[in-house]
Amino acid sequence: MRLYSESPAAGNVHRERVLEQIDELLAARRKSVDAERRAAFGPDLSSPVAYERSLGPYRDRLAGLLGWPLCGELPTKTTMRKKLVAEDDLGKIFRVWIEILPPLETYGLLFIPKGHTPFPLVISQHGGAGTPELCSGLFHSANYNDMSRRMVRRGYAVFAPQLPMWREDFGPAVDQLLLDRRLKQLGGSVAALNVYQIRGCLDVLSTLDEIDETRIGMMGLSWGGFYTLVTTALDTRIKVALTSCFFNDRYTYDLPPAVWLGSARSFLDPEIAALVCPRPLYVEVGNNDEHFSVETARPEAERVAAVYDALGVGDRFRYHEHEGAHEFDKADAGVYFLAGRLKG
C-alpha cells in the first residue's frame, strides 16, 4: 500500500501564516478597543473639583474588574499586633500583623521616626521577589536604594507591607501566577487581594496616634510601582504617589496580574493614572532599565500629562527618566516630590 508522506516542516509555512493572521487580528482589535476605551473614559474636565467628583463610577468599575475581595466593602473591623524590633538613630522599628480578611494577616514593617507626633505616613511597596526588609535596607537593598529609610530620615513614618511575591530566599517561594489563577476561579485576582490588603492596613494605621491620617503617600518599585498606581487610583486617602519602573505601554508589557479580562477596553496605565489626578503623581523610569523601555513609556506619560494640563494642574504630574537601571532612582528628585507634597 502506498501512503503519502512529507517532511515534518512541510506545513510550517501555513502555521506561520496563522500567527501572522492572529497578529493582524489583534492589531485591528486594539485600534477598535482603544477608541472604545477613550470614548468610555470621560471625567468632567471643567475643574479639578468637578473632575474628582466625577471619578466615582470609574473607580467602582476598576474595582469590579479586578474582582474579589476588592469589589466588596472594606472591612469594618480589623486587628493589629505589633512587636518592637529595634530602636536606632532614626527611630523605632516594629513588625506588625494586621488581620483584614480572616484568617489572613498582612505582615509588614512600621518605622516611627524620632520627633513630635503625628507624622505623615508613606506606604513603601516592594516589588517582585521582594520583602519589607529588602526595600527598607535592613540588609543589602538590591535595586531599592534604601527606599523606605530615605523617607524615615526626612521625618516620615513608613509602613512597608509584605505582598505574596517573595522568592525562595525569604521563605517558601510564591508562584504569583498560580495564586492569580486560583483567585480568578473564585471571582477575584491577586491584584485585587493585594490592593485590598494595603487599603485595609490604611484603615488601621490611620487610627494610630503617631500617624497624621490627612497626610498619606505611597511609593513603590517595579510591581510595587504597579500597586502604588492602582491603590492610589482607588483610595483617595493617599494624597501623593511615586511609581518607579513599571508605568508603560501595557500592550508591549502585557504582564499578569497587570492585565485582566477586558482591561484594554477600560483601563490601561494612563487611565489608571488619570484616576489619581488631580492628586500629585510622580512617574519615574530608568533609561537603562533591562526590563522596560522608556521609548514605550513616554507616549503613555504624555497622555497623563495632558489630563493634568487640561485641569490647569500640570505641576502636579511629573514624568522623570533617571540614568539608572531597573531601580529606585538614587537621586532624590522623586523623594523631594513626595515629601514636599506631604508637608503640613
Number of domains: 2
Strand arrangement, largest sheet?
Answer: 1-2-3-5-4-6-7-8-9
Report the CATH topology name of the largest domain. Rossmann fold
Roughly what percent helix? Answer: 25-40%
CATH superfamily of the largest domain, by name, is Alpha/Beta hydrolase fold, catalytic domain
Please give the number of β-strands: 9
CATH class placement of the largest domain: Alpha Beta
Radius of gyration: 22 Å
Distance between the termini: 90 Å
CATH architecture of the largest domain: 3-Layer(aba) Sandwich
Compute the number of helices. 11
Strand content: 15-25%
User: In terms of per-residue confidence, which ranges show pLDDT below 50 for 5 or more consecutive residues?
Assistant: none
Q: Taking all residues together, what is the mean pLDDT?
A: 95
**Which structural class is indicated by helix and strand composition?**
alpha/beta
Report the principal-axis shape.
globular
- Largest beta-sheet characterization: 9 strands, mixed
Q: Give helix and strand order, one letter per element, not per position.
A: HHHEEEEHHEHHEHEHEHEH
